[in-house]
Amino acid sequence: MMLDATKQDVQRSLLEKELESVGIRLNKSKPNIYFKVKKGGGIAFNSTCPLTKIDEKLVQMILHEYKIFNAEVLFREDVAADELIDVISANRVYLPCLYVYNKIDQISMEEVDRIARQPHSVVVSCNMKLNLDYLLESLWEDLALIRVYTKKPGQPPDFDDGLILRRGVTVEHVCHSIHRTLAAAFKYALVWGTSTKYSPQRVGLQHVMADEDVIQIIKK
Questions:
Q1: For a pLDDT cut of 90, what percent of the chain falls above it?
Q2: Where do the OBG-type G domain residues begin and end (predicted)?
Q3: What is the pLDDT of residues 16-59, one digit of tens each?
């Protein structure tokens, strides 16, 4: 999220509220709550940890507001009512976000230091080209990105045009990134890199890729 450092925290707060209102949660993980609607039996309330922000009565009130009178709810972490509502709604999106504050050349050093110490925040000046290298490093780290390079049979890897993917992707995700029909025609893949025990290693669709891996896909 690109922000104007001269506007302090006002701009960020407004944008976060707009995203919250449409169900987008930034730098948050999905609440660890098991929730299942049932046909009968009333409300079954349980927790595996002490709850300091919510209790059984409040849970029942919230569920009744949603016309839910039979359900099983199991709390595996201490959460607030808003997070339970997110789970009930089942339409929230949880996204990582890096806050990039531009125009730091127009504010005081004290303010730059304050902003830079905030979580998931990077300060830059595009006009003066300040801190842009650190921004690039932070993008890779905070957004959990990796590079995967492709290789055609009998040719060297294409290191000039790598695929930018999220950490934890499988060979199947790589296939979809190249072409939507490739996974259906997939036979096996050869992978070189840190995700393999030896190079090249023959792998299937569920093999998890690592940063800077090279992949050659063999079709049926």
A1: 89
A2: 1-144
A3: 999 999 999 999 999 999 999 999 999 999 999 999 999 999 99
Burial class (CB in 10 A: 0-12, 13-18, 19+), 90: exposed
Distance, in Å, from the CA atom of 28 to the CA atom of 13, rounded to the nearest integer, reads: 16
Output the pTM of the full model: 0.73
- 95, 28 contact by CB (below 8 A): no
Could you read off the pLDDT of 120-160 as tens digits, one per residue? Answer: 999 999 999 999 999 998 988 888 899 999 999 889 998 98
3-state secondary structure the chain: CEEEHHHCCHHHHHHHHHHHHCCEEECCCCCCEEEEECCCCCEEEEECCCCCCCCHHHHHHHHHHCCCCCEEEEECCCCCHHHHHHHHHCCCEEECCCEEEECHHHCCHHHHHHHHCCCCEEECECCCCECHHHHHHHHHHHCCEEEEEECCCCCCCCCCCCEEEECCCEHHHHHHHHCCCCCCCEEEEEEECCCCCCCCEEECCCCECCCCEEEEEEEC
